[in-house]
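Per-record layout

source: Pygocentrus nattereri
name: DALR anticodon binding domain-containing protein
length: 575
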Amino acid sequence: METEETSPFRVASTVRALRFALRRDAENGGDAERADSGERSANERDKLWFKESSAKNLRNRDFLAPNTVLATLYAHGQVPPAVLSRILTLRGNGVLPVAGCEVTAEGLRVSVDHCAAFRGVLCGMAAYLRPAAQRQGCVLINCPALHAKQAPPSPDSLTLGQLRTILIADHIGALLRRQGYSVSFCPGLPEESDIINYLRTLGIDWPAVSVSWTNEDREEKIRNILENCTYREREKERGKRGSKGEEMERGDGGMTDEVRINLKRVMEEVELHGYDPSLGTCTVQREALCHLAQLDRAIEDFPVSMATVLHVTSCQDEFRQQQTAMLWRAAGTTATQRLVICGPVKTPGCQMSSAQYLQLRRAQMKDASEMKYGDQVEGQTWEDIIRVMTCATVRFELLSTVHTSPVTLDVQREGVVSTKGPRGGVFVMYNCARLHTLFSSYEKGVEQGLYPEVPAGTELDFSALKEEGEWLLLFNYLIPFSELLDQSAQALELEGGGARVNLRTEQVLSLTSYPLFISLPLPPSPTLSLSIYLTSEPLPHLFNQMFCRLLLLKALRELYHNALDSLNLPPIPQL
């Protein structure tokens, strides 16, 4: 069990402690009735403190309780001295050490003890690179875009919107595995098919099945269950009634004897919330039976009480997937089902398949490499570099935006893949490569006797870390990383959240966008001395600062590697 001294710092723990310190007098004193009179909701009462994140505000404070909040807690907004004293002496598991607090024109501002925070994080970095808690459970991630209609999809028939759902599904799986879940994917795809090989090119290890594999027996079993279930509409019940759902399910692939299921009754009797009220009645088609059979097979070994199914689908196909979820429920499944809805992918002025998109980005990456390195760009190593950079570009373009929002891509052939944008894959992989160069240079310096080994963090004076960018890196990126890893599981476990779930998959990627080489400049070329990090000759009086900065950048490198692991991106091969 973690002790107060070893418990890693958490923003959430610190905000809770600050909230309690601020509200305790108000709740116990004469203002308690006014503070809790119902003028503000419970959610609003929780928003007493705000963590700062901008460089401008972090120069003066790390947390702020605005004057509007203080006015609701205390007469005339006057904070009692006892409250200020209590804030200055805050202690507790995960609570950041407070260096000072004062009431200003903006409100009550609190500053963290930077030196103690650097020491606590950099001397125990492993705790900040893993989820705060390991969970148990089984998650099946279903990707409707990959379910066969007449035949499995091909890279040429796969739309960019469908590709986005697959990448998000793969990313969610990696995040949930990090948190302890057992994760499986559905459907299985024919081994060595074009679509399997295409996904492998993008670093996606999707489950494969034998080309001769068939699920017809299970399809027939599910059909029989639906034919005899209580939700089936008989001819006399149906009459002339029609529904949106029925219309969407008509077409090719129908069966000789129609089976219509009243999905509205399923929703109402099982008390499922968040589904489209117009689901109505739908006709069960062969395509739907194939889909249900795949799901049923994928989940058969899961403990029912621990099983959750995530349907990762596009907004255009949400209605159809809701139908499938309700049909599966009517067929007897009791697994919890949630929908991860993905916004569309737009390519103004151009229609492009997933295969064409990958080819375009690879060609642009090769052109950019040849422009910079000329004739050096040849051989297997460069092929591997271009492949990794292309995968990084594709993943960041389609995953860096909130998954419910649309993504707009520039797919003009004459365009150049940007290396400047802080949210781009090239930018992040470039940062990783530069950090590798920095530590390789330092290790060579140690071998040559130019620098000593980095001592243990407990032997260093972290007051040497005074640069604005250094605190930004720690406070905005390193400390919150573990808490962000927890967010997807917390959203998944939220009860009463309805059919949809927002897993905030873009959050982890946002932590890789730190503009390292702006706030903490490195030299433009690996052949130059390493600027403020490594000195060109032994200067013992600067070693402490150099060691502190190296520990900080080592922590950033580990954060990058952990984040990129969730994208199945390998490091850039070294030339």
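summary: Confidence is low (pLDDT under 50) at residues 1-5, 28-45, 247-254, 517-532. The CA atoms of residues 114 and 471 lie 7 Å apart.
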